[in-house]
Amino acid sequence: MAKVTVRYWAAAKAAAGTAEERYDAATLAEALDAVRERHPGELTRVLLRCSFLIDGDPVGTRGHETVRLAEGGTVEVLPPFAGG
């Protein structure tokens, strides 16, 4: 298990009620399961529309269970943004 920081942006930040939190997770899927457990409701719905960066790299279409997290790493939760 890695200790990672999950950072929320825009609608995800509003739904979580915080800008960032720490989690213990080995994969992105585990981290997102922990987020959903801590924040049932609106954030769970927002996550369905989000893209993710792991230590600055886009996850893209990779399965979340295949995306390994490094100790001290960062997961950026990016909802769709309006405008340019």
Q: Please, what is the average pLDDT?
A: 95
Proportion in helices:
25-40%
**Could you tell me the radius of gyration in angstroms?**
12 Å
Report the span from N to C terminus: 37 Å
- Strand segment count: 5
Secondary-structure element string: EHEHHEEE
Please work out how many helical segments DSSP would assign. Answer: 3
Which range does the strand content fall in? Answer: 25-35%
Q: What oligomeric arrangement do these chains adopt?
A: single chain
- Summarize the main sheet: 5 strands, mixed
Q: Could you characterize the architecture of this molecule?
A:
The protein is 29% helix and 29% strand. It is an alpha+beta fold and 84 residues long. The longest helix has 11 residues, at 28-38. The termini are far apart. It holds the Pfam family ThiS.
Question: Would you kindly provide a brief summary of this structure?
Answer:
By secondary structure, the chain is an alpha+beta fold.
Please name the defining characteristics of this protein:
single chain; 84 residues; alpha+beta; ThiS/MoaD-like; MoaD/ThiS family protein; Beta-grasp_dom_sf; Mopterin_synth/thiamin_S_b
